[in-house]
């Protein structure tokens, strides 16, 4: 019995952390170095690998709410193309808001459809608005995707956004796993592991784009919103977990060419904040009965 439990734990660890991490490393290298494409495809590929392993019933076209993360990944890629190709700021943000709303509608409607179309649409619009705020914070300095300097003084700063999301996803994973949904908690862990693999390769090849975290935030916020709708995680907990993602974008947007030392300080603040939020959230969602 104990051997079976041990094997199950190892398998869960492999599916949640190891395989998504390795897949993100490989895809990031292939996309960033060999194909000269955007290395952010690495963490998306790593997440999809984790999704297919954790959610064994994954199907396309989607049949269940979790299946729609394949669509969310595609929508995240499409939103980055919109940010690059559409010149009008108003049209660009409008299209992104519509895409974000469509993603959340697909993720939440399978459960909310019993409450009516207006409720589903309201939740999708509200979640899309939060994602749009994240996008706008990244535009505080410029209205276009900017390329950050990557000299020896600020080589870490372009990685702050994915690092912040990686920390937030890792901190949220145990909260959601214990509080209501092991599946969603594992997917948050897979996202964090995939982002870790991407950050390593992105750092080594000196990726300059600072908006490659938009699809990751779309996935993260989708998982957090599903944890409330599908797993009954309290709304105040989901809001705190979501708010933890905004530390690094605010620091990046308000900072002036952050050097390596400042970037490390911001990462430390992110870790401490996420640890405190995760601890408080665990206390709020901890079940009254034994976990075993």
Short description:
The chain crosses the membrane at residues 12-31, 40-60, 66-86, 93-111, 117-137, 158-177, 183-205, 212-231, 237-255, 264-286. By secondary structure, the protein is mainly alpha-helical.
Describe the structure.
Keywords: Membrane, Transmembrane, Transmembrane helix. The chain crosses the membrane at residues 12-31, 40-60, 66-86, 93-111, 117-137, 158-177, 183-205, 212-231, 237-255, 264-286. This protein has 292 residues and is an all-alpha fold. It has one domain. The chain is built from eleven helices and no strands. It has helices at residues 2-34, 41-54, 69-85, 89-112, 117-137, 160-179, 182-204, 214-229, 235-243, 247-254, 260-285. Helix 6 runs antiparallel to helix 7. It is globular, with a radius of gyration of 18 Å.
Produce the secondary structure layout.
Elements: H1 2-34, H2 41-54, H3 69-85, H4 89-112, H5 117-137, H6 160-179, H7 182-204, H8 214-229, H9 235-243, H10 247-254, H11 260-285
Helix pairs in contact: 1-2, 1-7, 2-3, 2-7, 3-4, 3-8, 4-5, 4-8, 5-8, 6-7, 6-8, 6-10, 6-11, 7-8, 8-9
Keywords: Membrane, Transmembrane, Transmembrane helix
Transmembrane segments: 12-31, 40-60, 66-86, 93-111, 117-137, 158-177, 183-205, 212-231, 237-255, 264-286
